[in-house]
Please model this.
Amino acid sequence: MLTTPKTKILQYTLYDLKTSRGELIKFMSGTFKLVETNAGEFNTLSEPLALFHNKTHHYSGIQFGIEEGAVSIRAYGGQEIKALKTWLKLYKKHHAFKPRNMQTIEERYSLEFLPGLQQYRLSRFLVNRAKQKQLSEAKNAEEVKKILADYVVANFFPFFNHLNYKHNRQRHEITVNLLHYRRRQKLYAVFKGVKRQAYDLVFETNLSLPRLFRMGEATAMGFGDVVREGYQHNLL
Model:
């Protein structure tokens, strides 16, 4: 059974900072500006802004979201966690912010291939334009399920790369069975003038995924939450 070295994951939920989707985008912009103007405070981190504002196609190591109507920020990996902790100190200093109601969640995750299958629910899974065209041209529900299952597998790989795990397809085959899907009627804005189609999925896989995990497009904006079956949720 393959396991990788443990990766640290940290999430802050600042319940004093109530937000909405539109306000979260403004909060993200303010965060980027604060990091950029105080880059020297991040010590050994040579490009702290790149950790917060991911402009590449890699997995976003720092992600923003909304938990119970409040700002939530998540970091994957040592550098990202160091950057997030430094940001919180700066935010407290520059905004005279003293969190009275704050939740901290820490996770140590190791990628593991399971002997059986684990079921997960995936909420607001955004697909890119090319994939949505392919889905819209599918002839039946089974074809849609096959396309979405393959897309789930494809979206594991940016996360693998973030963990510095090089997948060997000959040694470890990834299994994803899509059990249920629902296309959301609403399109979600992810960039200026750019909207994406979202799906809610129930799938099973032979991978053990983190408790704190997102996948798909715009994970940095809180889309694509994955919840293991057995936890309480209302994703679908």
In short: Strands lie at 7-18, 62-67, 70-76, 102-109, 112-127, 176-191, 194-208, 225-228. Helices lie at 21-37, 48-52, 78-95, 129-136, 141-162. The radius of gyration is 18 Å.
